Amino acid sequence: MKKLSVLFAAVMMVVSVGMAKAQKIATLDVIGVLNAMPEKKKADTDLKAFLDAKQAEIKKKADAGQAKLKQYTEEAPKKTAEENKAREAELGKMQEEIQQMNEKAQKDFAAKQEAAYEPIEKKLNDAVSKVAKANGYEYVMDANSSAFLFRSGPDATPAVKKELGIQ
């Protein structure tokens, strides 16, 4: 059984190498290109500012809740059971509000991130398509992929960066 699986792996390797030689394949440093795009840098800055603002808002609410918890804990022995129960409910409601704010901030961030990156991805994909057609590449693969065991052949990264007008 072990020999059969080794034989199968060897056959698949030979077949895939044969197919790769028959087709023109290029690699592309997608992360490098994206990080060099000014649009991505601006989107990252805007998203960080948005996230920082949301986190500050949540922290302010959480700090207010902590202060109230401390105050209520100190005053609890002097209050009636009914008052303490009402205060407990109020703290529970505050905690729930903070959780909801957190969830809403995550959803808002994801939506804003998607909206910000969509045109950037489209621009990159258009440039890759244009470069691939111009150079006759049938496949352009991400050079950062861990699926590569061996990498050879043309690198489309410089051509895509040139198409995008970045260094």
From TrEMBL:
SUPFAM superfamilies registered for this protein in UniProt: OmpH-like
SMART domains, sorted: OmpH (SM00935)
Coiled coil: 55-104
Cellular component GO terms held in the UniProt record: cytosol
UniProt GO BP: protein stabilization
GO molecular function annotations of the record: unfolded protein binding
Domain of life (superkingdom): Bacteria
Keyword list, A-Z: Coiled coil, Signal
The keyword Coiled coil is assigned to this record: yes
Signal sequence annotation: 1-20
Matches recorded under PANTHER family: CHAPERONE PROTEIN SKP
UniProt record similarity statement: Belongs to the Skp family.
Designated name of the protein: Outer membrane protein
Organism: Chryseobacterium taeanense
